[in-house]
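Fold Annotation — chain and its backbone

Fields — amino acid sequence, structure tokens

___
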Amino acid sequence: MLTETAEIAQIKTSLLTDSYGRVHDYLRISLTDRCNLRCTYCMPSEDMQFALHSTLMTADEIYSIAKTFVKLGVKKIRLTGGEPLVRKDARKIIELLSELPVELTLTTNATKTNDFIEDFNKAGIKSVNVSLDTFDKEKFFAITRRNDFDTVLENIHQLIANNFHVKLNLVAMEGVNDGELIDFVKFTKNHPVHVRFIEFMPFPGNDWKREKVFTYIEMLERIRENFEVEKLYDEKNSTAKKYKVSGHAGTFAFINTVTLPFCGDCNRLRLTADGKIKNCLFSKGEIDLLTPYRNGGEIEELIFKSLKDKKEQTGGQDFSVPTKNRSMIAIGG
């Protein structure tokens, strides 16, 4: 039986490969736990305590730590939050990371993207994920607790007009927005977007219950009642099951984290805004990279240790009981 040190050394020889043979070449970096919206499934309450600025990675620290991951094999970086574009130095971070030989993307609520089109183009960003859970203005306010629907929709159209590949992320919830699936599929008729219906996932403070989960199978059945759909090819490491309505400009997909976890070929690592590496969205544990980095230490061995500790599925958590984790907004989507 290998010792812990030997196991880490064995993983290191294959770069970012975990104990189950999964190669990790995709890093999601949260820039902040702050957001200008207050989505109920993401942020526990209006009274949430945010991290102190002094505990967050600076722009230069984000670049340097990301550079280490790239050296170890990361080929894609996604910026997340909170809302990444609320950081005052978001432009600097985007510019710095664009120097790395990676595919750079981001997930946003699109309230501020109109101010960043030029920055995205300069950085070579071609794809943008936008969180939008409803086309109903009143329902948007109920979900986000903010009145920014018109801005978001206008900015989505602006992204499309500027030839960005736009993915719309919708968290489907029973009794909340489950009646809008057809509207989102209809939106793909004339708009070259990729709509992704996401099963409601359990996080502390978001009042998750199994009965609130509108499952992938239920969603697909409802859509098939209204459209003739065809199954599309799902690339390796894809989290989504992709479909298309014949003749539509866009596509749609399902992210079925709860009912059919796609952990078998996971290639993702996460870096929280305060510099902790999480080897899974649902992992209870995390390893601090920022403090050792600030103290002049090496962080590569800590990255390999995190990989060694990665569980086979859903961070080792069972969704039938309350999960132990940070809130979604404190992790980064």
Observations:
- Residues 128 and 166 are 5 Å apart (CA to CA).
